[in-house]
Structures are given as structure tokens and as C-alpha cells.
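User: For documentation purposes, I need each entry recorded in a consistent format: the amino acid sequence on its own, followed directly by the corresponding C-alpha cells. There are two entries in this batch. Please keep commentary to a minimum and don't merge the entries.

Assistant: Recorded as requested. Entry 1:
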Amino acid sequence: MPTIKLGYAPTRRSIFSAPDAIKYRNLTRDRLVELGIEFVDITDINEEGLLYDDKDMAKIAEKFKAEKVDGLFLPHCNFGTEYVSAKLAKELGVPVLLWGPLDERPEPNGVRLRDTQCGLFATGKVLRRFRVPFTYMTNCRLSDPIFERGIRDFLAVCNTVKTFRSIRVLQISTRPYDFMTTMCNEGELLEKFNVQLAPIPMPELVDTVKQCKTQHKEEVQSVIEYIQEKMEVKVTGEQVETVAALKVAMAKLREKYGCNAVAIQCWNALQGELGIMPCAANSLLNDEGVPVVCETDIHGAITALMVEAAGMDKSRSFFADWTIRHPDIPNGELLQHCGPWPVSVAKEKPVLGYPLAFDHPGSLTAEAKGGNLTLCRFDGDNGEYSLLLGNAKGTDGPKGMGTYLWIEVENIKRLEDKVVTGPYIHHCVGIHQNIVPILYETCKYIGIKADFYDPIEEDVKAYLRGEDVPSMQ
């Protein structure tokens, strides 16, 4: 799993019990250690190891920057000092987790040692004044299940934000002429989100494939053996070699240009040069956690990177078309593509053969596993960007071609309307995990709209508040 490092800045306020604040800073630290969370502490900044004044805030910011923390955790250990917490958060510019331990019963004489909840109210307001987006984990005990879940969800949010802010897509050739849908505004993506493209021409890919066949024979042979083990091969040995060489070539080009995803013009120029479809090669890279998307769909590559990061490497994503309604299930739909889905999402041994709509070999045919899914799509036009997202579940349906999965949603007409009226297209990315809450929180940090295709925003907020998890008494 990806390693995410938190800046641990527990805070107190002088009018409440400092010893009690120190007690809870240590208890919280111990719980993080118990959960295996990597964090940077501030015990070297002052004797208490707490954030509560300006001069310490500057030192803490300097330390956290030097340590390259991916997120900021602000436990309020009594009331908390809201203005230094907000200034630190503003200075760092990373996702912020706001939380405090549940307050105990007042002392017999009426004295309260902490007032943590009240401090959280204050810090939330001041963070808004500073225009700092933040994640709130509900006021709870350290032993409550929602504490562990909230921390781990926040790590996934940090991982997704970190990935989004460092996207670099290897763009292999232009988009297909017929696919105006996959056009993107490269300058705007860079200006708004720091998303970078590394465009290369098709001949560079073709030359690299040829070099791999002669100069990297061992790597190509290793891929051939993997194909023979994992796939039912219905193409010639020469075609299998080309598929393997294409996989190795794309991996080397991705590394050469420092990219974390690939968008390839999968038809028609490639077939004229190599005589194959790239789908199976895409599948092999996808299974290694490197998203490769079809039809030079840059927004699709961005979506896939977000989904992979939100899933914290627990499962692989797949790039799909919305295609046709289910012939028997009213809210059913067919997700399908020529054959680029990872082998790990298939419920049967994939066949390496010919696709549905093309005459060249190199695609996979396999039905994907069912179960619960997240489906989403990052897209935009006219200067506005959003993330379409929601849940679905796999269902039975007629046999298909390519890599495919019949799904069922709550209301297909509502989803259909969302895709048609935009800013989305017929492409989406799916994963066998419920990462909707992670993506929802991520949107606030990257400055785009979370756009649900079902009206589940209140359900997602309830999840983030932990309403589905009972507190320990």
C-alpha cells in the first residue's frame, strides 16, 4: 500500500487543563503507532509537544515541509488554538484532518478539563476564513471504530490528492480523428491542476517496440510466458511476441518520460504499423497499477489515476464504455471495452483473440467479476470540471465480446441523462471497492465539483460522520 506521512500537530488552549491536553496528545500518538500510521511529531519543538502559539507554528511548518508530509492531523487535545492551527494549515497546503477526543463528564464541582467540541467549532470557522479546505472526523473516543476508519479514509484522501497534484500522462499520438469527444484542453489542465502531458508520435512507439524485440528479448520473453499462463491464446506466436513487446515498450516510454499513466491512440495507425490491437498490452500494464486508457482519452487517464490512488492499491481499476441498456433488467447497463481490462478483474480466463469491431488481433475477451463497484469520470468543458461518481453492482446478462460486465444502478435514466447532458462522455472508470466517500472528500481539495449520478450525497456525508458505526460505551 502507498505510504502516506501525516504531520501530527496536536493543539491546546491555555485556559483549559494543560496536563489533560498532554495526556491526550500522548494517547493519540500511541493510537497512531498502534494503527501503523506514519507521522511526524513535534516533541522537539516545545516541552509539551503541542501547538498553541505563533513562534512554534513557524518551526512546525518548517519541519513538516522538510519532512514532506502529505497531510496535516490537528487533534484538539483540550479546546485548541484555532488561529495557529489555521495558519499552519494555510502554510502547508496539504489536506487537513480536524478531530478531537470526546469530552468526559464534568468534575463533581462542575469544572470541565477540556471543551474539545467547542474548540472544534472555533477551528472549523477560522479554517473557512483562511479558505483552507479540511476534513472533519467526528468527535469520538480513540477506541471507537470510527477513529480507525476515519484515519485510514483520510490517508486515502491524502494519497488521491498527492497523486492528482503530480499527474503526468504519456500521450501516444493524437486522439483518433473520429473521437472529438476525447479532446482536452492541455493548457487549461496545466494551469488549473498542474496536470502535465508528455506527447510522443506514433513512430516513436513503433520504433521502441522493434527495439524491444531485439534488445530486450528477456523482458519480452517473460511477458510472453505470463500471457501463455494467464490467457487462452487464440493468435499466432508472432502476434503474441508483438503484444509482449508493446507492453515492454510502453513501460519503458512511461519511465523515460516520467509519467504515471498512458493514453494511447489505439486505432487505426497502430494496426497499420504493428498489425495488432494494443488492448492486451494495455491490460498487462493496468494489472501492474499503471493505468493505460484507450482512444487518447486524457480525462480518462486522470480518472483512472484518481481511482487507483483512492483504492490504495487494494484492487485494480478498469476503463470502460457505457454501451447499451440491459435487455431484461430495467436499471441494467453494459460496461464494455475492446479488451484492455486487467486480468485480475476477470472472473474467467481471458481469451487473447480478436475484438468486436476490428479485424486485427490483440484484444482480450472476458467477463469481469461482479460485486459492488464505484464508477466515475473526471471531465470538463467550457472551463468547468467535475467528477461524476456513484455506485453500481454487477449482475448477470447475455454473453459479450471484449472485456465486459453487466451492472445495475439505482436509476439508469438519471445516469443516462447525466452522461448525455455532460460534461461527460461514454467513458468511465470502475473499481471493485466503494471509494465514493474518498473521491467526494478529494474534490474539495482539488477544486472540482463532486457530481453524483444518484442522490446519495447525504448518505456519503453520514458515512463520513460515522453514523453507520456505533460508538463504544
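Entry 2:
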Amino acid sequence: MEFAHVSVLLSECMDVLNIRPDGVYVDGTAGGAGHSREIAKRLTSGRLIAIDKDPDAVKTAKERLAPYSQSTVVQSDFYRIPEILEELGIPGVDGILLDLGVSSYQFDNPERGFSYNYDAKLDMRMSQSGLSAYDIVNTYAVPDLERILREFSEEKFAYKIARNIERARQQAPVETTFQLVEIIKQSIPAAARREGGHPAKRAFQALRIAVNGELDSLSRCLDTAFDCLNPGGRFAIITFQSLEDRMVKQKFKALCTGCTCPPDFPVCICGKTPRAKLVTRKPVEAGKEELEKNNRSHSARLRAVEKIK
């Protein structure tokens, strides 16, 4: 199956990154190399570091970026951006991009076990190694399953789903996506199943986030990657769900915040100064034309900041 993926907010990303032909840029989630290729096209003496932890994505990115000698593809998690740049001898970059969406290839390839629309072995590993959804579903205790479902997707029926998973696996392991979907459906009242799309959507999202440590990777990246930017460099992130967007919004706000002393203090004693300025006052969303062409762009939100010189 070809690694097909339509890059969301493509032109908007290029605009907010403000790419210079001689600049150095990181695409921390290369995927099918859509954003990476657009960055590479704009470079002359500059350089692009394209990162992805999915070996299928890395293989595709190497093929699609082969015409651009200024590109380097690395298989890794984006939270390791500082270490990767150090290993490559790059002291600073002029832009970092993260697209936190799951690729169409990952969703639409039944063998990867990401989707509730295909019957396949539970998996959901972007890196194709380590802990899988099968492991979590079949070994985690009810309180841990409930926490994952509640914290990572705000699933209202988290406890009932977790309890019914435990009951099912006492008889036999829950091995496939459709087995899990049936458990979820039986755990949600009929009235609730008729609202808000597929009843398994939230639970599958929560399991995927847990399997891949997505929020942990984002948190670690937000804490360290900004320091890799040169003065004037930009950090742009596309989110697709509220937990991610809230984390990005709060971190960017903190980077742009100066003095936090109470208003009645005659002089500043905290010594804090803004480290960045907002490039996007409000999140950039897909336009009408993109929404019509790519349904998965509906929940995309692009935020960006610029490191103050």
C-alpha cells in the first residue's frame, strides 16, 4: 500500500514558517513528506531535517526527498529534536514544524490496526515496535484503562468500557479492532451511540495516544525544541484534538509572557521577559476549498510563535 497522505494547511504552514532559501528547518513529523517537500523546494543553500518514527514514513520520505540534496531524513521521535540536531552538528534552526495528525496511510492501512473501520489485529504503533494497543487492552488494570479513556479522549463511559474489556478478556484475549468495537458499543447507551459519530472514535483515539506516548512526546518537545531556534526562528504546530491544542496554546502563551508580578508592584522583581511573539493571534484553520477536498482537515488548528531576537 502506497504511503498516501494529504498534507493539511500546506500553504499556511509555508507562510507562517517564513522560509528563507538559506535557512535550516526541521519537519518533526515528516509522514508522506508533503510539508517536507514544500520546504525543500524553497531552499537553495539551506537545509531540511525530516524526522518520523514510522519506518514506512521514513522510507517514503527518503524516496520523495531524494531529488533535494539539502534534505536529511531521520527515523526518530520528534521530542528528540535537540539530540538529533546535536548529532548532526547543527547549532540552531530557523523553523520547526509539527503536524500532530495521524497519516491517512496509517488510518487506512488495515494491517496497522489504527481504525475502527477495518477488522485487524489491535496494534496502533506508529514506530511498529514496543507497546501495542493489544498489550494495553489485555494487560492494563481497570483503573488504568479508565484513566486512559477519560484523560486522553474525555470518554464519558470510560469506567464501563474498561470494566467490560476486563470481563471480555477473562474469557479470551481481545485481539482485533472489531472485537474492541463491539465491547465499546455494548458499554455505551443506545441514545449516546446515536450522537457524535462512531461510538468507538474516542476510545480508539485514547488508546492510540497512550500507545504512542503522544502527549508525553509533545510535552517534552515543547519544553526543549524552542531553545533550538535561532533568533527570529519560528515554531509551528498543527493540532487535531483539544488536549494537544490546549498544551500548545498554553506553552506558546508562556513563551510570549513577560513580567508576572502583581499589578500593584512598583517595580518588576520576577525578571521575566518574553522569549517569543505570536505569529498567529488565533489558530489558523482550513479554508472552504481545503475542507471540501480533505475531510480530515476539519479539526486542524495551526499555531505559531517566533523567537524574539
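Summary note for entry 2:
The chain has a mean pLDDT of 94.
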